[in-house]
Design brief:
Length: 306
């Protein structure tokens, strides 16, 4: 596993990061501790959570693990604020996240989604206050359109504020739209790119079928809404092709999907969501095995956007 610079001048982070969305929602505290233990043991140094994950339970569990294991200095810790991005809300969220995470400061504090109802100047000024107060070492955004990222950078430049260091985006074999504008923008502006859902919230494991009931306990059943992104005839047709490739190459479908994302240019760290230590190991197997040039070319053509 590689270590890569997070943004133009950020800390070194592992090419695999741990997404903590499952903690407190799909797995309990003990299971989450086992996942984090394995992640750190295997060299993962970037942990990403958010206040909305299990209504703060994810942050609480991560904070308890950091305190119990004494590992805060080994981890690059990222979290996010959602909802109305007013000055008061953003500042209160940062303070509450630090309390739950049992830390004086997070390494990256991110805006989870664009808020069209609050002036961007107000939101970004609040981020700068967070940095100046020492609650966060860097700031970033998640799920922003490329024009929104560019506008935020322009406003920060005008304010003389600390610029964004990271952008976090959905990226996998059936969601590749960030290649058109986000990745060139990030490269030009020196932004670190954190990609999430390399398995498409489980869609790319092959467990879902056309017009079939959702399997109990799966991500789509536990967190409704993902189906709007993934359940389309186009994506199921791509999935059929991916199954054929996986069979021909004698690779498990999840390993194929992970290996593809892990080898893509322009991505700083791929965030994996795990329910068990075996899921962490699966990502390392995919990274170690990789894909050859011919396999990558075939997958790129099969899944090409548009």
């Amino acid at each position: 596993m590689e270590l890569r610079t997070l943004g133009r001048d950020g800390p070194l982070v592992s090419s695999l990061g741990l997404g903590c969305v499952t903690f407190g929602r799909e797995i309990d505290r003990d299971a989450a501790f086992a996942v984090m233990d394995r992640a750190l043991e295997r060299g993962i140094t970037l942990f990403d959570t958010a206040e909305v994950y299990a209504r703060g339970a994810s942050e609480t569990i991560v904070g308890e693990w950091l305190a119990a294991r004494g590992t805060r200095q080994q981890i690059v810790l990222a979290t996010k604020v959602a909802g109305a991005l007013t000055r008061e809300r953003v500042l209160a969220s940062a303070e509450a996240s630090c309390r739950r995470l049992q830390t004086d400061a997070v390494d990256v504090f991110q805006l989870h989604r664009w808020d069209p109802d609050v002036p961007l100047d107000e939101t970004l000024a609040a981020l700068e206050t967070i940095v100046q107060r020492g609650l966060a070492r860097a700031v970033g955004v998640s799920n922003y359109a490329a024009w929104q990222v560019a506008k935020a950078l322009w406003v920060q430049d005008r304010q003389g504020a600390t610029p964004l260091r990271t952008v976090q985006l959905n990226y996998n074999l059936v969601v590749r739209d960030i290649e058109r504008e986000h990745l060139p923008l990030a490269a030009d502006q020196g932004l670190g790119v954190l990609s999430y859902s390399p398995l498409g919230a489980g869609f790319l494991t092959g467990k879902y079928q056309r017009d079939a009931a959702l399997p109990a306990g799966t991500r789509f059943a536990v967190a409704p809404g993902h189906d709007e992104i993934y359940f389309s005839e186009r994506n199921f047709t791509i999935l059929d092709g991916l199954r054929r490739c996986a069979d021909a190459w004698q690779l498990p479908l999840p390993q194929l999907a992970l290996a593809w994302v892990l080898g893509r240019p322009g991505i700083t760290s791929v965030l994996i969501g795990a329910r068990t230590p075996a899921h962490v190991d699966q990502a390392f197997t995919a990274e170690a095995h990789g894909l050859d040039a011919a396999q990558r070319a075939e997958l790129d053509e099969l899944t090409r956007p548009g």
